[in-house]
Amino acid sequence: MGIEDAGPGTVRPGGRTARVRASVLRAAGDALAEHGFAHLDLVDVARRAEVGKTTVYRRWGTVTGLVADLLLEMAEESLPRTETGSLLGDLKANARLVQRTLADPRQGALFKAVLAAATGEEKTAEALHRFYDTRVKEWAPCVQQAVDRGEIPQGTDAHEVIRAVSAPLYYRLLTSGDRLDEAAADRAAEAAVAAARAGAYLRGDDGHA
Amino acid sequence: MGIEDAGPGTVRPGGRTARVRASVLRAAGDALAEHGFAHLDLVDVARRAEVGKTTVYRRWGTVTGLVADLLLEMAEESLPRTETGSLLGDLKANARLVQRTLADPRQGALFKAVLAAATGEEKTAEALHRFYDTRVKEWAPCVQQAVDRGEIPQGTDAHEVIRAVSAPLYYRLLTSGDRLDEAAADRAAEAAVAAARAGAYLRGDDGHA
DNA sequence: CGATTAATGAAACTGGAGTCCCGTTATGGG
DNA sequence: CCCATAACGGGACTCCAGTTTCATTAATCG
């Protein structure tokens, strides 16, 4: 009975506490990109961040807890969205952005590690879902504009179209050893547009015309 | 210099050795499905398999090594493929199969764990890639048949079409909390067919007609 | 069937991840 | 500017995953 929880960092979040968090999250990202999720150890993160290991254990506790907080920060920094005037152009821009991110050695390894961490730990999974919801929502407007222009049918689920662009890129990253190139990105965008035109992403409909 | 490696289990693979392997792999699958990759510990696997922990460490060494062997076995047991006479019918059957597998609590958790394990460990990743190559190759013929029937353009990359069906299902499994239902499976199949018809999966082509 | 030795398994051992204790630092409120 | 105390950090401690050793069991070959 009474107010409980409110872990460390919630009462005096300014100054040192904020610096420690930034330093630890940066170190965690580096370590994840280098060693992967499986071999991440909090003592190493503490060393890199030049912070006492007690602090890391007290504030984040586990590897998955730390990744969850890292995802919160990653969700905040949003990337600028371009507008090309056509759905295919916008989705290609999106696909290229995702492709470049996943193909980059550091970023690609980091995303793989974060996905692995979200597997199995509910709290981390929720943070990951919020991260992708944020990204999808940022890009959904370009699909709605395409509907308004008459490029694709009324009632198209904008979020589903955006997800359709990323899906094959992530699938390829995880299940094949092939490199993610621009051709793969363009193909993903083209496939999504073709499917959207055919009404495959109509909301609350199973696709039968 | 000379012949080296050839670890335990390669000289006398019959009888007990085979029984131990089967028992350990089954236990590993159970443990992965229950606790996830992050919390898997080989001592627990040894206990479940009723096998000395020394044996597990000697033959598989690490968690990722054990998962790699598990994937080799998973690749061998192939699922029967149905033939419905139309590309959409065949791909829907494939999509439903994947969807049922991933939606099943045990199987879904196991696949998540296996994907997580393949992240970061090259040897495990290779085993995973072989597993998916096997599955994709099993289903590719139905796409070729569709080409022969004239449903989709000549020069369509059959493997890419099959991957396009699974991709959105895996993407949803990993990046959202939403349940994988039949509607999602059907939508994946329909989108793949629409994109294939539009020529998005032409081999060695970036999609421009 | 018996000899050879590959493979297993019990037990003792070790190193380091994670915890605990308590003194030190510096934030935020008055 | 000063006080109360939130948050940090060093170091000792614990516990168990992973290793090593060696005796026991059983697969293969003649």
From TrEMBL, chains A, B:
Output the Pfam families linked to this UniProt entry.
TetR_C_11, TetR_N
Q: Which UniProt keywords apply?
A: DNA-binding, Transcription, Transcription regulation
Any single GO molecular-function term of the entry would be: transcription cis-regulatory region binding
Q: What range(s) does the HTH tetR-type domain occupy?
A: 18-78
Q: Which InterPro entries match?
A: Homeodomain-like_sf, HTH-type_TetR-like_transc_reg, HTH_TetR, Tet_transcr_reg_TetR-rel_C_sf, TetR_C
For whether the record's keyword set contains tRNA processing, the answer is no
Q: Which residues bind DNA?
A: 41-60
* PANTHER family according to UniProt: HTH-TYPE TRANSCRIPTIONAL REGULATOR RUTR, TETR-FAMILY TRANSCRIPTIONAL REGULATOR
Q: Please state what the protein is called.
A: TetR/AcrR family transcriptional regulator
Native source species: Streptomyces griseofuscus
